[in-house]
Amino acid sequence: MEQRLTIITLGVTDLKKSIDFYENKFGWKRSDMSNDDIVFYQLNGIYLSLYPKDELAKDATVGSIGNGFNGFTMAHNARSEKEVDDLIKSFREKGVEIVKEPHKAFWGGYSSYIADPDGNLWEIAYNPYLKID
Amino acid sequence: MEQRLTIITLGVTDLKKSIDFYENKFGWKRSDMSNDDIVFYQLNGIYLSLYPKDELAKDATVGSIGNGFNGFTMAHNARSEKEVDDLIKSFREKGVEIVKEPHKAFWGGYSSYIADPDGNLWEIAYNPYLKID
Prior knowledge:
2 copies of one chain form a homodimer. Chain A has 133 residues and is an alpha/beta fold. Chain A has 2 domains: 7-60, Roll (2,3-Dihydroxybiphenyl 1,2-Dioxygenase, domain 1), CATH 3.10.180.10; 73-126, 2,3-Dihydroxybiphenyl 1,2-Dioxygenase, domain 1. Chain A contains 3 helices and 8 strands; from the N terminus they run E-H-E-E-H-E-E-H-E-E-E. In chain A, the strands form 2 sheets. A 4-stranded mixed β-sheet of chain A has the order 5-8-7-6, with helices on one face. A 3-stranded mixed β-sheet of chain A has the order 1-3-2. In chain A, a hairpin with a 4-residue loop joins strand 2 and strand 3. The two termini of chain A are 26 Å apart. At the A-B interface, strand 1, helix 2, strand 4, strand 5 and strand 8 of A face strand 1, helix 2, strand 4, strand 5 and strand 8 of B.
């Protein structure tokens, strides 16, 4: 199978609340593929999509109940430590939950974590070894 | 914040088992950023990374316990319905869990789901409205 990931779909408990988070805290613009039931954000090469958790589970024919750590993180890499600090400052001002304050990481980077309304973790990081186009 | 996602990290319970899945069932090649503790696969514009779940939770300073539906799916879009069928046939032969057989979806596409060793769901789909480069 080709090394390709087309869409990450987050199953959300409150679509309006999640849309508010991604559009008003992150400042992202939705793609015109979006409709009242599902929202898409075009990122670098992939889409992030928001869809009600119950509906997502139903589509995959799995149970919708889940608790605790959901076992994955998404990382947004910034271009400098300052950009990480600035993003976290701005998120704090907007009332976003800061899960871990920016800190020097053992792997040589600079890292922090925030949570979206469903507790999905976004690492906001600077990695000097990874070039951002 | 720019509309960018750099890395998706899956917190896995058995790193060797997950590596076997992504390298021998999916046939993916790891990036040279990988080491004994963490593995990266370069995809279209982003990396998928595998990291022990306990370590990932520790890094994010959250509890590592989680059960049930983890609330997200990853989609790999193929270029045709036949390619979806061929991929699912090949996964079945390799012993991959087929969660949902390929079917015509209400949104006009053709969709199926498989699970990785931790139950992370991959939708294998064809979407006639979405161009794959």
